[in-house]
Specification:
Layout lengths: L5 E9 L7 H18 L7 E6 L2 E9 L6 E9 H4 L8 H10 L7 E5 L2 E10 L4 H14 L20 E8 L2 E2 L3 E2 L2 E2 L3 E3 L8 E3 L6 H7 L7 H18 L3 E2 L3 H8 L6 E6 L9 H12 L2 E4 L5 E9 L6 H27 L7 H4 L3 E3 L3 E2 L2 H4 L6 H11 L27
Antiparallel strand pairs: 1-3, 1-7, 2-3, 4-6, 5-6, 7-8, 9-10, 11-12, 13-15, 14-16, 15-16, 17-18
Helix pairs in contact: 1-4, 6-7, 8-9
């Protein structure tokens, strides 16, 4: 029997996880594992979560090898209801004993206030962490907030992405189990290109250090995020500007890379004639780039991208990103120039062809009509078309003067 507490590592290796869901998946996975271990009386002394594009992991400090012995106490029916006048056990007594897994003779009695009741107490030896952990992990994975799961191979396993490896280490010992077709081992995986192949872990607590030093993977989401932010600011400063860092974009980029490397790029000065909001939106939404502004808040002809590799040819990497952004900016430039050929007022005639409401005219009529000119129509519409429960007509018509003309009708 072992009662020594050791660090517990659980790592689920997968194909690339959806970047916008990575933080949510990691938080839910860790919270479920921690809660279940606490319920099972296997609570550790602290934890650290890890989340990267190809892994969800949790390191728990000082987790016991097995539960303590548990005392099970059960109170049954009143003695008066448990035995008949001749002292023979009733169905109530037999049912209570059967639920406890014993005979009626093995059940004792206890005073509960003024009522004497049947009572059973038994001491059960605690289960091992190794026996409990597979079900705990399975429950955590099943409960993850995944809107759409996928299958892979010729099995019925379902998860957000195919599972590729599993690590369950308690101290230096592998806890044997199989989850979604993967047998647990001490082998994690490093960077897909920098460190392909397995990386053997000798202890649970060396997980992060091994991935950073030998695997070219920063497993901590927060540490990776901070590194990206620092690199982006440094690159922007070197360009003489300030980076535009949207927190949601930073989170998404953090979830896309395992080993972030910032690379600055350039685009043609002529594109700055396009409103900078359009260019920044294109950079952030389509390319996951960070824009650079000067001291006056004006867009500079530069961007910063985050690579997932330490390239041996940074020039080629930079040129590739510059080549990708160019046609997107060219499209924005084209539509901007097309829009500038016409005044906004020139579009008014087109509004005459768009019906706002069958009885209220077109979109063109909407801003030009006076409230009084539509009072009768509105009154009739309110009386016959709109009811508090969405059915039939209103019992009490709403005054047209209490309706909002510029949107869906609403009460004042």
């Amino acid at each position: 029997m072992h009662d020594m507490a050791k660090d517990l590592l659980i790592e689920l290796g997968t194909e690339e996880l959806p970047p916008k869901a990575l933080k949510t998946l990691s938080n839910a996975f860790s919270a479920s594992i921690i809660e279940q271990l606490e319920t099972a009386q296997l609570k550790g002394e602290g934890s650290e979560s890890f989340a990267a594009p190809r892994r969800l992991a949790l390191l728990l400090k000082a987790v016991p090898e097995e539960q303590g012995d548990q005392v099970i106490k059960r109170t049954g029916p009143a003695v008066q209801a448990a035995f008949d006048e001749d002292g023979n056990p009733t169905k109530a007594a037999e049912g209570f004993a059967r639920s406890c897994g014993v005979s009626v003779d093995e059940v004792s009695r206890i005073q509960d206030g003024k009522v004497e009741k049947l009572y059973y107490e038994v001491q059960k030896p605690g289960l091992s962490l190794s026996a409990l952990l597979p079900e705990i992990i399975e429950k955590a994975l099943t409960a993850l907030p995944i809107p759409k799961r996928m299958r892979w191979g010729d099995n019925d396993y379902q998860f957000v992405r195919p599972v590729q490896w599993l690590v369950t280490l308690h101290g230096d010992r592998v806890l044997p189990m199989e989850i979604m077709g993967q047998s647990a081992s001490a082998d994690t995986q490093g960077h897909r290109f920098h460190a392909p192949g397995p990386l053997r872990l000798t202890r649970a607590d060396e997980y992060a250090a091994v991935l950073r030093e030998r695997g070219k993977v920063e497993p901590s989401f927060d540490a990776r995020r901070a590194r990206i932010e620092e690199q982006v600011h440094a690159e922007a400063k070197a360009l003489g500007g300030k980076a535009v860092i949207d927190p949601s974009l930073l989170d998404e980029v953090t979830a896309l890379v395992e080993w972030p490397v910032a690379v600055a790029g350039h685009f043609e000065q002529r594109f700055l004639d396009v409103p900078q909001e359009a260019l920044i939106t294109t950079m952030e939404d389509n390319q996951k780039y960070f824009a650079v502004l000067d001291d006056n808040g004006q867009l500079m002809p530069h961007f910063i991208t985050i690579a997932n590799i330490e390239s041996r040819n940074v020039k080629l990497l930079r040129e590739g990103n510059e080549r990708v952004i160019r046609p997107r900016f060219a499209d924005a430039e084209f539509f901007w120039n097309q829009d500038r050929k016409h005044r906004l007022e020139d579009n008014n005639d087109a509004l005459k062809k768009i019906v706002f409401q069958k009885k209220l005219g077109t979109v063109y009529d909407k801003p030009n009509a006076s409230p009084s000119s539509h009072e009768t129509l509105l009154s009739n519409w309110a009386t016959t078309s709109i009811a508090p429960n969405g059915q039939g007509s209103c019992a009490k018509p709403i005054s047209p003067r209490r309706w909002c003309w510029n949107s869906i009708p609403c009460r004042a």
